[in-house]
Amino acid sequence: MSDALINGLAGAGGGIIAQLITYPLQTVNTRQQTDRGLKKEKKKLGTVEQICQVIKNEGWERLYGGLTPSLVGTAASQGVYYYFYQIFRNKAETAALEQRKMGVGDGSVGMLSSLLVAALSGCVNVLFTNPIWVVVTRMQTYKKSSKKCQPGQELSTAPDEAILAAAELPPFGTTHAIQEIYDEGGVFGFWRGVFPTLIMVSNPSMQFMLYETMLKKLKQRRALNKKGNSGVTALEIFSLGALAKLGATVVTYPLLVVKSRLQAKQVTNGDKRQHYKGTSDAILKMIRYEGLYGFYKGMGTKIVQSVLAAAVLFMIKEELVNGARFLLTSKVKSKRP
Fold this sequence. Notes:
The chain crosses the membrane at residues 109-128, 190-211, 232-256. By secondary structure, this protein is an all-alpha fold. The chain has helices at 3-33, 47-58, 67-101, 111-141, 159-165, 174-185, 194-199, 202-225, 234-263, 279-289, 299-335. The longest helix is centred in the last third of the chain and has 37 residues, at 299-335.
């Protein structure tokens, strides 16, 4: 089994476990990002309050809306990303060694090369998996009302929820989301938000650049202090993954909000201020009607969710990779005479 395949499978496994743990936070965060209420129109709920509101009004299962396609997307994204990341990384390491033979550099992959490797891997991943995430966004932002509105009853919900409160809605599954997306934009509808998503590859690029830089320095320091032993514990991997993700998320969060707005169901017959024709239109309308705050809606929730998910992913991935290599090495040794 190749090292790239081991990393790809380990990344998929780690991504699925991290997704299961943090999915309710992801659902709430997507709703916060796609909340198109204008400046100071309504009271903003905190993350915990919003989770409680979803459970009370729609049932706890709505916190896991779109979980199935999300798990498929996570497995596909992490698998594709880590597979191509390892391939590009191997090529970068080979190139660095060749340059060292020519008297250039120390033979290690530099920060710029690490950034480029992560960016190329991210672009390949986005082009392959964007349709899955459009479906997931639709399912996460679908709002189900548990109550019917009686004649003359005053609505306590937000304007965009009033229509949903007026009647019992049919189940909204993966098939319904796919059909809705296709009806709105045809095949190209599944690639809505792909432009800001491609720009968003800078997030994992920054994440991996920060992670590998910190990991390299930690191993070097450990090797000096422990006479050649550069081993890193699972807890240290967890911490490095969390720090790397935190830095990348703060910088690139506005692009994530724009992407979610484009992938969510568009308001075609309502307020035109909340209907986006494309990336530039979304950015301009958000600046005009919501201010800079609109680009950071739900960032607190996202930081908690993404940092926790990334830390869990890194820790589990490293353990799975080490376990797979140990098993393969043991298997090879047992076959020797």
